[in-house]
Amino acid sequence: MAETRPDESAAPDGGAVRLAAVLAALRDGVITADARGCIQSLNPAAERLTGWPAAEALGRPVAEVFRLVGRANRVSLPGPVAEVLASGAATAPTEHTLLNLRTGTELAIVCHAVPLAGPDGGAGALLVFRDRTGERDELERLRESERQLNTILDNVESYIFIKDTDYRYRYANRAVCRLFGADLADIVGRTDADFLDPDALARLHANDRRVIEDGERLVEEEELIGRATGEHCTALTVKLPLRHPDGRIYALCGVATDITWQKRREDQLRLAAGVFDHAQEGILITDADARIVDINPAFTAITGYGRDEALGRNPSFLKSDHHAPEFFADMWASVLETGAWRGEVCNRKKNGESFIEMLAISAVPARQGGRGYFVGVFTDITQFKAQQQRLERIAHYDALTQLPNRVLMADRLHVALAQTRRAGDLMAVCYLDLDEFKPVNDTYGHEAGDQILVEVASRLSLGLRAGDTVARLGGDEFVILLAGLHDLDECRRTLDRLLRTLAKPYGLAGGVGVELSASVGVAVYPLDDTDADTLLRHADQSMYVAKEAGRNRYHLYDPEHDRRARAQREAISRIEEGLLRGEFQLHYQPKVDMRRGRVVGAEALIRWQHPQRGLLPPSEFLPHIDGTELARPVGEWVIDTALAQMAAWRKGGLELPVSVNVSARHLQSPDFTDNLARALARQPGVPPSDLELEILETSALDDLLHVAGLIDGCHRLGVSFALDDFGTGYSSLSYLKRLSAKTLKIDQSFVRDMLHDSEDMAIVDAIVGMAEAFQRRVIAEGVEGVEHGVLLLHLGCDCAQGYAIARPMAAAEIPAWVANWRPDGAWLQAARQHCPKADLPILIAGFDHRHWIDLVAAWIGGAGVAANPPPLNSHACRFGRWYDGPGLARYGALAAFREIGPVHERIHALVRELATLKLAGQDDRAAGRVPELLDQRNSLLLLLERLAREIAARAD
Ligand SMILES: Nc1nc2c(ncn2[C@@H]2O[C@H](COP(=O)(O)OP(=O)(O)OP(=O)(O)O)[C@@H](O)[C@H]2O)c(=O)[nH]1
Questions:
Q1: Which of 256, 284, 397, 539 could form a disulfide linkage to 521, CB 3.0–4.6 angstroms apart?
Q2: Is it true that 6-134 and 156-263 share their CATH fold?
Q3: What is the pTM of this model?
Q4: Where in this chain does the record put each PAS domain (predicted)?
């Protein structure tokens, strides 16, 4: 702005007028102030800008009219006039905000002041200011617009950049910065070589040159790969030259859009289209209304229908009559409900041929606004199905008879079993095997055999109900499943009918007729309540029973019999295991000569030290192996062990003969004698004569002659035999005669009861007599009381074995027992005394009385009255019955006999007294009188002895 110098005007009037005109014309406000800072003049622009008319403003301080506030902080400022007046120097133009007091309007101004000499010669100041509000707003608008542009540029996905003619970046938006991994400041001034992968550089540069040098506008696809970030994209780049107004190119502007995703999508679509076109599977696409909208070439290849024939139609035009309408209804229900369906469909081709396809339908959900569609993919599996059916036939049917084979039969059996369980009726599994089929084959040839098998299959099939199954397992074996039976009779009737049918002649070529029969094993569920496999096995087992029973019959499986047989097998195998594990041991029961007071031997008795059940007697396990193969190894173990024990005792100075029990099975094993010889040889210190073999007289020695020979063979080795349990068999006499056993062992049942059973005594007496007659030794088993021994001695049997002598004991206890054993006094006395057999009843009457007294004493001494008392009537006790009966008849004439009666009566009277006391609860008083009772007993026994002596004396 030009300085106003009114005081320097050469022509006051003209100059003043011109000056006023100039001032009036100026757009800048001009204010002059005197040295005090009061306004001297202001031009119209100043009036307008400050809002102060000159008339009001003149004379006022400048600061009142021209009020300045800071642009940023809005604090009032002193203004340039004050500065000039204070400093005397001009101020530089400064931008401010001028507040116009009058209007409240805020203006942006630029102002400066210069010193000014007033007309009075005093100092003053000239203030010049211009309204810049319009310019400032424009600038603000420009800045705002730039900010917006940057925001847009930085937030678009596209890469936007400007390069100068040296191909250096002048601008890059944030997308570019991201791709380059650099800030804008680091990009500006650099070239692509600094940021992009070298591979793409040459092509990019060529494009840039076409724009910069040739002025072309390019639209190109470019690969952009950030060197630092590795970020990669395919971009569609638009590059255009930027020109000066004169047309010169000064820069290149590029906008690159990332089309990577679109490219991929395009690739995918291309791929999908390729798959669609080249797939082997037929593909059809329908709209939501099931109208075909597309098919692929394979569809045409499979069905024969071209696009024109298929498009717009419902796929049901392919359907055959194979499926019911419900099939398709279900199919679509599944597609709509689950979005998919998969299965086999039989359709019809254009040429009318039906084919089977494996079809998968998928519902493709609707996009926004759309209705979705369905895709069906199918493969022609007709060939495969045919092959599968062929294989299935081979796998499940017998090629010769066309009957179900074992596999299909097993399947049917499982199903039938489940049905039977549900229905609660019976099912029979019948295992049928032709009888003597091999000879038919051998005689008439394999082909004839085949013909018969086919005929058998046919007869069986025709003879059954629809629900039954007949299957051929192979060879001449068939299985028949009879389901829904109400009772066993129904099963029997069917089997009888089948057997009759099969027994009819089979006609062969040349008029030959062959007759055949069959054997059938039958397991009936649920009588045999087991699983399918086991039923079949049981039927098979029963078929063998039918064969063994004579063929041409059926045999029903018996579960209980099988259970017992199984238990038996398990027991045998456990015993075998026990033998291997050394769980068996021998105990020894001494045998004595009661007359001479000598121990004459011991019987070895097997025991099983069972790990769980403890020590088991032979009755617990030997019956299981009786007659089995295992009898031999167990028997051999017994002989070996007994011989080893005898050798051990001998070493300790005890020479004790031992007898062992030998089972019939063991004895009759072919190499028995040889094995025995080897066992003896293993113990050379033991004389064979010390070993005695006890064989059961009852053990059904089938072949007496053979056994007799065996016994003789063993005798030659020096080993003797005893017939055990003698008297219990049917042909004891015959055995005695035929077998050269040295010893007879009287069975303990006779010995035990002979005191009370005169018949048993008679048997014992007879056996002793026989032994004497045949010159055999005799020994009694089961001697449980001293009286048994006494009676045996009187009967002439000196040797005995039994609990009254010793129980079986461990081998280690035997030497001490032998050393300490003494015979009972009664035996020694009986040995000295001769008692005619006819008078032995006196002896027995004595035993009876003694026994009765023992019972009475025990009853009286026992607590309470729980047990019944022995017979109290003197004629009811065994002694009384003898006395009144046989005794009176034989000895009634003897005084010694008659004396006995009153004593016997007194004893009974006393016992009745004691019983009364006991029953009255006076147990102690009753017990206190027992010695009195024993005294009276002794008196009676003395009288009996006297009677015996008297009789003996008379006999002498
Ligand atoms: N023809 C013919 N024979 C067969 C076939 N399969 C097996 N065999 C014969 O059938 C016979 C079966 O005989 P077996 O059941 O063992 O004996 P079997 O003579 O019937 O005597 P048992 O069954 O004891 O009454 C054998 O000779 C086999 O060679 C076949 O497919 N065709």
A1: 539
A2: yes
A3: 0.51
A4: 15-88, 145-215, 275-314
